[in-house]
Amino acid sequence: MAEFDVIIIGGGPGGYVCAIRCAQLGLKAAVVEGRDTLGGTCLNVGCIPSKALLNATHHLHEVHENFEKMGIMGAKPTVDWVRMLGYKDDVIGQNTKGIEFLFKKNKVTWLKGWGSIPAPGQVKVGEEVHTAKNIVIATGSESSPLPGVTIDEKVVVTSTGALTLEKIPARLVVIGAGVIGLEMGSVYARLGAEVTVIEYLDAITPGMDAEVAKTFQRILSKQGLKFILGAAVQGVDKGKKGATIRYKLRKDDSEATLEADTVLVATGRRPYVAGLGLEALGVEMLPRGQVKTDDHFATNIKGLYAIGDAITGPMLAHKAEDEGMALAEILAGKSGHVNYDVIPGVIYTTPEVANVGKTEEQLKEEGRAYKVGKFSFMGNGRAKAVFQGDGFVKILADKATDRILGAHIIGPMAGDLIHEICVAMEFGASAQDLALTCHAHPTYSEAVREAALACGDGAIHA
Ligand code: NAI
Asked: Distance from the CA of 224 to the center of ligand 1, in angstroms?
């Protein structure tokens, strides 16, 4: 008799959610986690701490930029960096302890230590070998290394080191204009650092709807971030103080350098499966290092499954959570399912940027006939009241059926607004369905409705 129905290796959003759902469905579940706290990258050194710093620095920005405009006068606050980091750590602690509480509540066992899989049905943690009917790999991802760049997490840092810098750098160079680079770049720009972002491609946030990316870059530039696009970083040389970044402009192969106190390398992440013993087990892998799984998250080894960043698909906490829940349902004999066509993505800058479904570029490439409904936040009274009129909602709908195919928002609370469109898409709604839904006034969500109206006979406030 196996000791557990399911052992999940990794206590991040994929793993802990899978475990809780397994337990709720009557399965005896355990999670192997070697960190001192549960929650994985997301809660410990990713989504949650970065949002704490984004929140703190957003308020700082408001005080400096907008308070006087509203007639709030007086001395401007300064930053106590140690206290700000303390606040961030408190937020982490509250969240990770919350997961520990949920484990107790749901009777999920936490096997403390790093796990490996010596044989099918077995998980070794420290010196102990545990047995399970099913094993789930939910070990997440790590920062991808960049040739010519050595990370020390002090001067040359990944997102992990960027959350615990000893002091606010005067000059920060960010390599990679993706989600991590722009979120952390925003944090330090608001704290007064001179931030330069070097990006290999000719636009920021590759894969994002091009119109949104362009507006986003314009807004971030206004906030003080500098961009060097079309530039391949060749290497980073550490000096006595700070570092020199060497890069080559792709258009003419010219070489240049940049000096920085801190360098953030944010050029993507790769699956983290080292030390699990997958090679010895004969687990099939994909060329880019992910565990190969079928539609039910099963690997080629019986009873061995994988979810989250360790498998293919967007590296997002909520995608991992959904896979964790779906797999739990499957293991409990039900039918778990993830709709990969409706997975939102959010960048938590100010303004926020959010998307779901197809971009206009993808629809063009697919040769789909589509229509665009766009509405500027300039026409939204609430957004103007908070100085966030710069941005828009863009809804893409099928030209013939009006069914919503994608949505892209740059503006206040975009990360929350996107979800009414996600729900609409899950239900196969048309843009008209959204347009006919009463939206409270004055809310930011009226901009979503107006964009939906713009897919039909036109927005009212445009
Ligand atoms: P990313 O894939 O979003 O962006 C990496 C960027 O680096 C790309 O624009 C790429 O063109 C550029 N790049 C690559 N090599 C380069 C070079 N040699 N020189 C200059 N530029 C180069 O990766 P990122 O930002 O590191 O994030 C990793 C993962 O974490 C992503 O999958 C992201 O979705 C996820 N994440 C999500 C968050 C969210 O949902 N808000 C927050 C943070 C991370």
From this structure: 20
d(CA 65, CA 115) in angstroms, rounded, equals 49
Nearest CA to ligand 1 atom 2: 268
Residue type, 224: G
Q: Which domain, by its residues, includes 322?
A: 3-143+270-338
**Ligand 1, atom 15, residue with closest C-alpha:** 267
Q: For the segment 306-339, what is each residue's pLDDT rounded down to a tens digit?
A: 999 999 999 999 999 999 999 999 999 999 999 9
Mutation pick for ligand 1 pocket among 47, 157, 200 (CB with most ligand atoms within 8 Å): 200
| Token code pair at residue 169 | 């750098």
Is there a single domain that holds both residue 28 and residue 126?
Answer: yes
Ligand 1 within 6 A of CB of 199: yes
Measure 214 CA to ligand 1 centroid, in angstroms.
17
CATH number, domain at 237?
Answer: 3.50.50.60
Identify the DSSP state of 75.
P
Cβ distance 407 to 423 under 8 Å?
no
Instruction: Give this prediction's pTM.
Output: 0.97
Question: For 245-287, what is each residue's pLDDT tens digit?
Answer: 999 999 999 999 999 999 999 999 999 999 999 999 999 999 9
**Of the candidates 217, 246, 267, which is a domain's last residue?**
267
Rounded-to-integer distance, Cα 304 and Cα 310, Å: 13
Q: Provide the number of structural domains found in the chain.
A: 3
Q: Which residues are catalytic?
A: 441
149 lines ligand 1 (CB under 6 A): no
Q: Are residues 137 and 10 in the same domain?
A: yes
